[in-house]
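ok trying this again, last paste got cut off
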Amino acid sequence: MKYSEFGLCNTHEMFRNAINKRFAVPAFNAYNMETISAIISAARLTKSPVIIAISESALKYMGDDMLMGMIAGAKITPTEQIALHLDHGVSVESCMHAINIGFSSVMLDFSKRDLSENINATANIVRYAHARDVSVESELGILSGIEDENTQSTESVYTNPDIAQKFVTDTKTNSLAIAIGTSHGAYKRKSANEKLRFDILEQIQAKIPNTPLVLHGASSVPAEYIDTINKFGGDIQNAMGIDTEQLEFAATKTNICKINIDSDLRLAFTAAVRKSLFGAPQNFNPREYIGAARDEIRNMCIFLMRTVFHCANKI
């Protein structure tokens, strides 16, 4: 089915607006009904454009029919500017499959492959996607860290500005994810002194000024969630994310049009569930403790939309 049948939109207009009005569109990773509901609710309450990001492992977990059934049940309208995005597609075939079931945006991540292979594969999916009015995101450079089985690396390689220019010209990709010091997972920095390489970002956007840029691995890993998880039985040590001041700068002062947030949602969900169960040990009603997790994710998304990404009231 075509994504428009679900009321979804591609990312073309929201990224144009983001560049012109200096904000970033959040891409929040979702895994189940509660996370999808929380993300859409936050977008509606703040009148924000939003991207629901689904990894290949999350799609496998939910299944095609269940995911698209939930999207249909959300009664999304095109004026709400909500995109459904395949995050880190590992093959041309997986991207085609996502497009065919109703995704409005896909990412083909061949960043660890040879440059020529990355260019050729990306150009192939761009042709397929553009014929169906679907947006394509690509990645250059390598982010370290672990998010899931398809998104992990022990090395980090910054994006080369000159190669970025060639890549965009040769592939005609709609947006480009770059590596400037972010990383996947909850362990992004070893100290508060580590900063994103905005000097590299400046060089990249000088080479490709009209290309929307993307930050992956940009969760802030709020200390209050770590503290709550550990207080109520968890054991997460030395986790540290990207501070919100750097994210706000990227969103409002650069050509970063899309910022991916995954770990923060996982932490918010887990913290709320642990706190709820600890406070009511006799409870075994999933609606109560999972409902608390849904509400915490919604509140966190609202905070980021309003105060960090500045995308509230930007539809």
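PB: full thing came through this time. The beta strands are 25-29, 50-55, 82-89, 105-108, 135-140, 145-148, 151-153, 175-178, 213-215, 256-261.
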